[in-house]
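Replying to the earlier thread about multi-chain prediction with a worked example.

Input:
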Amino acid sequence: VTFEEFVALRLGALLRYATVVTWDPHLAEDVTQEVLVRAQARWGRIGGLEAPEAYVKRMIVNEFLSWRRRLSARPVTRETLEASAGSVPDHGTSWDERDAMWRLIATLPARQRAAVALRFYEDMSYEEIADVLGCRAVTARSHVSRALLTLREQLPSASISTGDKR
Amino acid sequence: MSRSIEDLVRAAQHEQADRAADPRRILAALPRRRAQVVRRRWFTLAVAAVAVAAVAAVPVIALQRSPAPQPPSFTPGPSVMPIPSGEPAPAPNTYVPLRYKPTWLPDGYAEYFRNSRLEGSSRVWYRDPPTGPLDNDGPLFFLNVDREAPETSQGAQPVDIGGVRGTYLSEADMISWPGGGFALTVGALSQNPSKATLLRIARSVRLDAEVFRIPFRAPQPPPGLLQVAFNVAGAGPRDWVGEVVLGDDPHAFAGDVSITVGAATRAPQGGTALRAGGHPARYVKEPGRSLRYSLVVEIGAGRLLTVSAARLSQAEMIELAEDTGSVTAADLPWIGS
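Result:
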């Protein structure tokens, strides 16, 4: 597959993925652009991989975490959140639940949020998450567990039930 | 109806995915972004030199210790901070081999900035003498000596540099070629030199045995951080600012912590007065939304020590300041030469 074909086929999915990883559509746009430019320069190698999309997604995560370093771990700001808020499709939860969860995920540390994105948006195993994040599987599991613990503690108790799937 | 936390997370993630930008906008912006990235990658060091305030964005450096040849004798300057008795002696002086230099530049250019990093080093020559050690500006030429070649760029033209094949990138005013196991790059910023001028500079590059002295002893990095960059900028041999950059990733562009010693500081005015290492100091927040704070210590002899960081406590910054060692080279004769 050529770079142009790859972009034509997968850009939408990559942008959605980046938006979930970064939790900031503007940052996702910037990160995705940056990664695509770098991927294009190396497409001779990336395009020959068995799973080029997985490789590019890994680049997105790494770029995001790098961005976080560059910006000194800047949290997702209230302004960013409010600017991002808008009419979105209802995926089956009440507005209050969705709003609370959406805001809480924004407060997670970057690495935890990335791990949660890989776990629940990408349905990756902890081994796969560890591979993307460059850590051990037990560490990946820890990132996800801590994130869920934080979310569970902060959400109204009536909204959730137990049932941590392993 | 209550739902599992995982279901709530998934629902929120899918809603967030629906907020993604329009892919057509990304596609339309890619060519321009590519030009920006190419320029930034190739120019990172020089850009940092232009705006020394941004030196934290300079990539990586590791400082080579001891085995380098000993330069001519020097007189150690006063201690930046007193070293408590019983503490180990300061680490050996640190030297960075420069390896290469251009033997021809257009008239009027002089060297005012040097950088060292894990994968190489940079030297920058400005046309206009800086008005202060942190005020470098204007047209410049630079020489980068990197362990790895820059990414191949579309549109690069082949050129011959002393019988070696190099590439000329007109959009970036830059020539890169392999030499001695390194990737050498000469380039220009804030001007539009002709290809012939860049070729003449590149073809004049020769081996340089000079070693670059780090002019003060860097502190021991806090846990989780390492020394990733060192820069010296100056307006004259005694009018300089040296900077050690600490970061958590040797391959990241940014360092989170900056420690400067020299005749000036980038910290804003004002702040809270305090003392560090027995010296008068002030602790000041960067303006605007920045989370960065600076600790500025008056260390005597007209020099200031500044620790700037976003993620360190005031106590940790004071500790770093107090661990910063002696000025080892008060005069840096290469500045302005």
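Residues 68-91 of chain A have pLDDT under 50 and may be disordered.

Feel free to reuse this layout for your own posts.
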